[in-house]
Specification:
The protein has 173 residues and is α+β, with helices and mostly antiparallel strands. It has two helices and nine strands. Strands 2, 4, 5, 6, 8 and 9 form a six-stranded mixed β-sheet that branches. A three-stranded antiparallel β-sheet has the order 1-3-7, with no helix packed on it.
């Protein structure tokens, strides 16, 4: 009888030491957060889309960088390596300010707009799945090739990242 009680107690202790899959997941997530914090701000995905996205990973790829005159140019972006700011109410805040420079093929700067887009997102979690859409229309721009240069300022993580997209405005339809 004593052997059975000792065995039961030993089994109960070994089972209590392992909290299960939820604890495994929590430990893996912490390793992911640690790795995330060593990343520089950059973009995992950048693509032109046909309509505004409806969430992270929920978009329709345009498949071309050629736009009709007056057509909306929508860029979908998934940044990574950004920081979170602790704010009141047990919340985390993501805060991005994005600048846009549009350059014609001949090198002329068509526009240089600081603060083109401002995105603030608050959550009870340190979200790592986050996306932004940048929408513009080049009304009156002559047909030709242009470079869109986006500079994302991570106000919460104090980092900056820049990326370019080549775009072409087709001749009038």
């Amino acid at each position: 009888m004593r052997f059975v009680l000792c065995l039961a107690a030993a089994l109960s202790l070994s089972h209590a030491a392992y909290a299960g899959p939820a604890e495994d997941l929590k430990k893996a997530e912490q390793k992911t957060y640690d790795a995330w914090q060593s990343l520089p701000l950059t973009e995992r995905t950048i693509t032109f889309i046909t309509e505004p996205s409806t969430g992270y990973g929920l978009y329709k790829v345009k498949g071309s960088n050629v736009f009709k005159p007056g057509e909306k140019i929508i860029t979908y972006v998934e940044p990574i390596g950004y920081g979170w700011k602790d704010i009141a109410g047990d919340l985390y805040e993501l805060n991005f300010v994005t600048d846009l420079t549009l350059t014609a093929e001949n090198g002329d700067v068509v526009t240089d707009q600081k603060g083109f887009s401002k995105t603030v997102f608050q959550s009870h979690n340190q979200n790592m799945e986050f996306s932004m859409d940048f929408t513009l229309t080049l009304d009156g721009a002559p047909a030709g090739k242009y470079t869109l240069e986006y500079t994302i300022h991570d106000m919460s993580g104090k980092q900056v990242s820049t990326f370019d997209q080549e775009v072409e405005i087709a001749k009038g339809a």
